[in-house]
Structures
1.
Amino acid sequence: MIRFEPRARASLALIVGARLAALATAFALAAIPLAAAGAPVGRSFWLMLQGAGGTLFALTETLTRATPLILTGLAAAVAFRARLFNIGAEGQLYAGAMAAVAVGSGAVSGGPLLLVPLVLLAAALAGAALMLVPTVLKVRLGVDEVVTTLLLNFVVLLVAQMMLEGPLKDPMGGGWPQSEPILDQAMLPPIVERMRLHGGFLLGLLACVVAHVLMTRSVLGLRIRAVGENATAAAYAGIPILPTMLAVGALSGGLAGLAGASEVAGLKGYLTADLSRGFGYAGIVVAMVAGLQPLAVVPAAILVAGVFVGADTMSRTVGVSNYIADLIVALALVCVLVSGLFVRFRVRIA
C-alpha cells in the first residue's frame, strides 16, 4: 500500500533535485519519438545544445528568445504566488506592444533618455490595465480569472489586427499589416554589436531582481504570500485583499506588457499580428519550471528558449521536425508538476 505523508518543510536540495530530475525525465521521454523517427538520439541532443549555445551567435539568439519569456514567466510567477492565475500574458504582451508603438512612433519627440522610459511606461500601464479587469471580477464577483484572462487574449489580438489595418498602420508599409516603425531614439540599445540581443534582456534581469526583493523583503510581498497561502486567513489577520490583489494584477500585467515593448522596441522595431510566438503561454511553463521563484525564472527562460532555438538547428541537420521543441517543453511542464508531488509529500510503502 502506498501512502503520501505531507512534509513539514522541503529542503532546497530536494526542491532543486526534483526540478533537475523532472527536466532529465522530460528529455528522456522526448528521446522516444526521436528514436521512432529514425534520428540518432545522442547526436540530436548534441546538435540542439550546439544550436542553443555553441557559438556567440547561437548564444545571443537564445538570450534574445529568452527575453520575452523572462518577462512573461515573471508575470505568471508573481500572479500565481497570490493564486491569481493569469493566463492572459499573451494579450497583455500585445497590449503593451500597441502602447509602445503608439508612443514611440512619433507621438512624442525627444531623445532616448525621454522616449525609451516613456515607451516602457506606456507598455507597462497598458498591460497592467488589461489585467486589472479580471482581477476585480475575481475578487468582487468570484469570476474565474482563468477564463477571463484566456478569452481576453483573443480579444486583444483581434483589436491589434484592427489597429494594424487602421490607426497604427504604416502608410509606407506597402499594404502589409504592420505598424509605423518606432523611432530610433525610442529603440532599446543593442548589447552585443551586430547581434540581435538588446537591452530588453537586461530589463528582464533587473525585473527579476526587483521582484525577488519585493516578494521576500517588503510588506507587499508578505501580503502577496499570505493571500496566496490562505486568502480567508489573510483577511481575518487584517490584510486588505482587494488592494493586494490589484497590486498583484497590475504588477503581473505590467511585466507582460514590458515583454511586448521589448519585442517591438528592442527587436523588430514595429508591430505585426505575429509578433509573439506564444510567449505568453510559454511564460507559464517558465514560471512552473522556476517554481514561481523570481530569480529562478531567468535560467528557466533560458532553458526553454534554448530548446526552441536549438531544435531549429537539430531539425535542419537530422531531418526531424522542430516541433520536438514543443513536445520537450510540454513534457517538462508535466514532469515538473509531478515532481512537485514528491516535494510536498513523502512516499511510504506499507
Note: The chain is about 70% helix and 5% strand.
2.
Amino acid sequence: MTQYDNLLIENMDDGVTLITINRAKKLNAISAQTAIELQDAFAAFDHSSQRVAVLTGAGDASFSAGADVNNMPELWRCVPTVGITTEKPIVCAVSGWCVGGGLVIAMMADLCVASEDAKFYYPEAKLGLTQGMIAGLAGRIAHKVAMEMMLLARPVDAQRAYQAGLVNEVTPKGGHVEAALAMARELATMAPLVLATLKRFVNEGVLAHGPTETLGRTRRQMEVIAQSEDIREGFAAQKEKRAPRFIGK
C-alpha cells in the first residue's frame, strides 16, 4: 500500500476505507501535494475491492481549512466527481472548521456527517477571489442558504447545515468519524452496482454542473491522455519513423 506524506489510509475488513488528511498543525489545509495524494488515494480505492470511503481530517479543530495559501493546490484534483471519479460512495466526516475548498469537497461528497462543533464557511467574497466551484452549492442545498454562505460569507453551524440538507447527521463532538464509519458499513452491505448506478444517474442527469466543475472534468480527461502510455508510444514511433503500437492505456 502506498505511503503518503499528508494522508493516513486505513483499509478495513468490512469493505470501508478511512482516508484522513493528516495536516492537523495546518488545520488540514490542502497543499499542492495533498491534492495530488488525495486524487491518487481515491484512484487506488476505486481500483480496489473496498466498497465505501470515509474522508476526514486529523484532529477535531478542522476538517480542512481549504487551500493552503502558501502552497496553492489544483483543487479540482481532490474534489469528488471532478478529479476524484469513483462511482463508489464517499462519506465525509466533518468536525471543527470546514472552509473554502474543504466545503467544496464536503458538498460534492455523497453523504456527510458533522460533529456539533462543525462550522461551514466560504470566505472568498471577503478575500476578492474565487475558483467558482462553490456555485454548485446552490443546486445541492436550499438556494437562499447557499447564497448567504457564498455572498455574505457567513459561517453556518452543524445544526443549520443539517436543516439545509448539507449534512445527513449531527453527532456529539468527537463522534463524527465513528458515525460516518457506521454509515459506510451500512452502505458496504448494499448492492454495489445499484449504488454506482444511482450515484452516476444523480451526478450525470440530476445535479447541475457549474462552469468550473465542467472545466475540472475536462482537465481530468485531458490529463488521462497526456499521461498515457499511448501518447509516449505515439511520439516514440514518430521519432523512430515506425508505425505506432497503441494499447489503449
Note: The mean pLDDT is 94.
3.
Amino acid sequence: MAWDLPDVTLNLRVLDLIGIFAFSLSGALLAVRKRFDLLGVVVLGCVTAVGGGSIRDTLTGTVPPVYLRDETYLWVAILGAMSGFLFGPRLERFDRTLSVFDTLGLALFAVSGALGGITLGFGPLGVVFVGALSGVGGGVIRDVLAGEVPQVLYRRDQLYATAAACGALTVYLLHGQVSDLLGQLLGALVVIGLRWLSRRGRVRLPVRRLGDEGS
C-alpha cells in the first residue's frame, strides 16, 4: 500500500500532538516531584515534549523543527505542563503515573520517527535508528535536566530504547502490508507491551558484571 503524503502528514501531526502532551505531562510530574517552581515545571515539561520531535526532525531534514513553525505544538506542551503542575500533587503514585505517560510518549514518538524515516526512503536500520532516538530523546533530556541518570543507560529491568527500536521496526515491517493507521497502532502497542512486560520482570536485557569470568 502506497503512502499518501497528506495522510502521512496528518498522522504525524496527530501522533506528535498526543505524544507532546504525554511527554510534557511526564516531565511536569517529575518536576513536581523534585519540587520545581511553576516556571521550572513548565520548562521541564516543554523541553521534554519537544526533545524527541526535534531529534526526529533534524535526522529527517525537517529544519527548523515543526514545533517552531507551528505554535500549536508549544501550546499543547504548555497545557500538558500546566496540567502536571495543577493536578500532580493530587496523584498518590508519581512513579506509576510518570511511567504511564512516559511510555505513551515513548511509543508515539518512536512510531512517528519511524514513519518519518519511511517517507524519506530509509532502510530498516535507518528507520529503527530514527525511531529509537525520537522516542528516547525527550525522556533523556528530562532526566538529565532533573538530575537523574537517564533510564536508557541503566534500567535493564524496564526496556526503554529497546522497546522504542522494536516499535519502529514493527512499523517498518508492516509498511505496505496493513493500513497506515493500523501499522502505527501496532508499532505503538509493541512499545507499550514490551515496557509493561519489562516492568514485571518478564523481559530484560543481559548485564555484564565484573567478575563474571571468575578468578
Note: Residues 1-6 have pLDDT under 50 and may be disordered.
